[in-house]
Design goal:
Order of helices and strands: HEEHHHHHHHHHHHHHHHHHHHHHH
Distance between the termini: 43 Å
Number of domains: 1
Mean pLDDT: 86
CATH architecture: Up-down Bundle
CATH topology: Growth Hormone, Chain: A
Number of strands: 2
Largest sheet: 2 strands, antiparallel
Strand content: under 5%
Strand order of the largest sheet: 1-2
Radius of gyration: 22 Å
Low-confidence stretches: 1-7, 452-462
Helix content: over 70%
CATH class: Mainly Alpha
Structural class: mainly alpha
Shape: globular
Length: about 450
């Protein structure tokens, strides 16, 4: 390797691969913590934290606490965004990882409803809110770490790496749950409240997160500040209140960025959280689900998420080659078409395992192509001195509109009107994203060394 190539692989003396690992490892841990809660919200918490009432009511109550984190995420984006734009990306990323790790570990220690009554779901809600705060600051910080240190013309590729944390975290979380279920012999179709899994086994994934957080902290503490932020500080471009500044100068970008993300969130949490509850629910006439064994369905999801992971690198390359806007328009049309498949593939009530797997693979493949460019698109919409705050708010407000309510609404629609209405719900979300992407200007060649100015309007590229 010649000296010129070696210099290109360094950012401020730090190897670029270390930056890549730090952005990916952190998001992997954060998403692992987030997903183990999502999985437990369907299989564990309705039994242990919300045991009163009928099973559907307990499930909806559990999904409501699942959604609570999405309410917290915009708050986290404002809190961590303030320090990320004022103090720096590195310190803020370390703080978000600590908050997530502590909250997740504590969930593994919580008493249940039978032990302390209503205090148990209250404590669970507090910890879930804390998880939301942390993830609200984590994603935008990791995205900025990747984009602000990227090589010219390769921001889409660089920004793809933290996105890999989502499928990797999902694989770790659900893979661990599958292993525990097989080892401890738990079945959702005949759950034993006194069995090993519901007694202590479910706590293991939450407690093991402490080990992963320690690894993540070690990696992140060895980083330096991003050169883009360092140059902005040297030019005296920091603002006292990034939140006020981003609404004053970049309010159009906030709206566009939020709705650009809407379909991405909606499809993912329908294909993961809602699909898990619907797929493992009892068949008619006792229920309105598909009757899959819990461990079998998790294995199907683990296979499908591999397609999510595989398409992310492709999405980075495509967005660098053809632009963010064009690639996102195409995949959003694909999500609209996917909504039409819900009734024919899932509506019969006796969907085969092969059909279910195909349904999940299509959804996860579309998810990879729409999620991959987002960690480049949202930071590119905002100037340096409000980028952490702006990208975080857009990403996390979209999480309320597209993710917090998605499993709840989808469960209600499937129970009340049939599974085809869930597909229609996804179609409407994709239409809203398509409009936002259409009016968004292309960001691929946008300079990241920019300062917020009052926004005169949005450029519409035909």
């Amino acid at each position: 390797m010649n000296s010129e190539t070696a210099d290109a692989d360094l950012v401020g003396g730090v190897p670029r691969r270390r930056i890549v690992i730090a952005s990916m490892v952190g998001t992997t841990i954060e998403f692992y913590d987030f997903y183990i809660y999502a999985t437990a919200a369907v299989s564990v918490f309705p039994h242990l934290f919300f045991p009163k009432g009928d099973p559907t009511t307990a499930l909806l109550a559990s999904l409501a606490t699942f959604g609570l984190a999405f309410v917290a995420r915009p708050v986290g984006s404002v809190l961590f965004g303030h320090f990320g734009d004022r103090v720096g990306r590195k310190a803020t990323l370390v703080a978000s990882l600590l908050v997530m790790g502590i909250a997740t570990f504590v969930i593994g220690l919580l008493p249940t409803y039978s032990q302390v009554g209503v205090i148990a779901p209250a404590l669970l809600a507090v910890m879930r809110f804390s998880q939301g705060l942390a993830l609200g600051g984590e994603w935008s910080g990791a995205a900025l770490l990747a984009t602000e240190t990227a090589e010219p013309g390769r921001r889409g590729w660089a920004a793809m790496w933290p996105q890999l944390g989502a499928p990797f975290g999902f694989l770790l979380a659900n893979g661990l749950f599958v292993g525990l279920l097989l080892w401890l012999g738990h079945s959702n179709l005949n759950a034993d409240p006194d069995g090993a899994f519901l007694t202590w086994g479910w706590r293991v994934p939450f407690l093991l997160s402490a080990v992963m957080v320690a690894i993540g902290l070690y990696v992140r503490l060895r980083l330096i500040e991003t050169p883009v932020f360092t140059r902005a500080v040297a030019r005296g471009e920091k603002v006292k209140t990034p939140l006020t500044e981003v609404f004053r100068t970049s309010w159009r970008q906030l709206i566009i960025g939020t709705f650009v993300m809407l379909a991405t969130y909606t499809i993912f949490y329908i294909v993961t959280t809602w699909a898990l509850s619907f797929g493992t629910g009892k068949r008619p006439p006792d229920g309105k689900g598909l009757g899959f064994a819990y461990v079998d369905f998790l294995q199907l999801q683990l296979i499908a998420v591999l397609f999510f992971a595989a398409t992310l690198p492709l999405s980075g390359l495509v967005s660098d080659r053809f632009g963010r806007r064009r690639s996102l328009l195409v995949v959003t049309i694909g999500i609209m078409a996917y909504g039409a498949l819900f009734a024919p593939m899932l509506g019969s009530g006796n969907t085969s395992e092969g059909t279910m797997l195909l349904f999940l693979i299509i959804g996860m493949t579309l998810m990879g192509f729409t999620f991959g460019p987002m960690s480049a698109v949202l930071p590119e919409l905002f100037p340096t001195n409000v980028r952490y705050t702006g990208s975080g708010i857009s990403y996390n407000v979209a999480s309320i509109l597209g993710a917090a309510v998605a499993p709840f609404i989808a469960t209600w629609l499937a129970t009340s009107y049939g599974v085809g209405w869930v597909g229609l719900y996804l179609f409407v979300a994709a239409c809203l994203s398509f409009i936002a992407i259409f009016v968004m200007h292309e960001t691929k060649d946008t300079s990241l060394d920019s300062v917020a100015q009052p926004d005169p309007g949005t450029v519409i590229t035909p």
